[in-house]
Amino acid sequence: MNLFIEKKAQEISFALLRVAAYIRRFELRRRIENLSYHLIENISYKNDDLTLQTIEGLISFITLAKNVYELEPVNYDILKRELTILKNEIEEYSGKFAVNDIEKFFTRVESIKVNTNKEEKYGNSNTAKEYGKEVAELSSNNAPVIQPTNRQQIIIDRLRTSGEGKLQLKDILEVLPEVSERTIRYDLKKLFRSGKIFREGSGPSSYYMLATKSGVDVINN
């Protein structure tokens, strides 16, 4: 198990034990505390399946704690976000997400379309500016290079402007057709680790959303 996963699990377990101490219902407090210990134990044993089940159990119990007014909504949002980040990291590290994702085997229309008209390919200057794109000048057949920080900002901006506030991987690929899927996944992982976005679900049907705190976007404009 990588160091990021181990550190994240320690942080989450510590936070869970802190909030559990204030829960008045004994059985609910005991369940959350026990699962917090199991989380550390399963990760130390490198048991990915049990770890993922433990995370799902913790999300269910903190949801219950919030619904019965034993857990503040702001603390619930933070804990669920961090548990989701840990879950996504374990799935990617263990290869469970990649196994179910067969979409990458198919060629997308955007990747085989040849378009030498820069304005048509990237849209007008207002659209490019809206998503924070810095369009490089094209020379011969070389594709423009978009720096990682710019790509990640483009993803964040697109999530902000999406109607439902969430996007699938294929939607993000359409925003950056000149960037490989592997690079986009790397950018998404960086945004996960920084706590700016999280993923809901697994496989090709999963969605990416901005991390929020009590319904408010936590990313500064």
Structure notes:
The protein has two domains: 3-94, de novo design (two linked rop proteins) (Up-down Bundle), CATH 1.20.1440; 100-217, Winged helix-like DNA-binding domain superfamily/Winged helix DNA-binding domain (Arc Repressor Mutant, subunit A, Orthogonal Bundle), CATH 1.10.10. The radius of gyration is 20 Å and the shape is globular. It is built from eleven helices and five strands; from the N terminus they run H-H-H-H-H-H-H-H-H-E-H-H-E-E-E-E. Strand 4 and strand 5 (216-217) form a beta hairpin. A three-stranded antiparallel beta sheet has the order 1-3-2. It has a two-stranded antiparallel sheet with strand order 4-5. The chain is mainly α and 221 residues long. It has helices at residues 3-20, 26-44, 48-67, 73-94, 96-100, 109-112, 118-122, 125-130, 148-161, 169-175, 181-193, and strands at residues 166-167, 197-200, 207-210, 212-213, 216-217.
Task: Write a short abstract of this structure.
By secondary structure, the protein is mainly alpha-helical.
What is Rg?
A: 20 Å
Q: CATH superfamily of the largest domain, please?
A: Winged helix-like DNA-binding domain superfamily/Winged helix DNA-binding domain
Helix proportion: 55-70%
The CATH class designation of the largest domain is: Mainly Alpha
How many distinct folded domains? Answer: 2
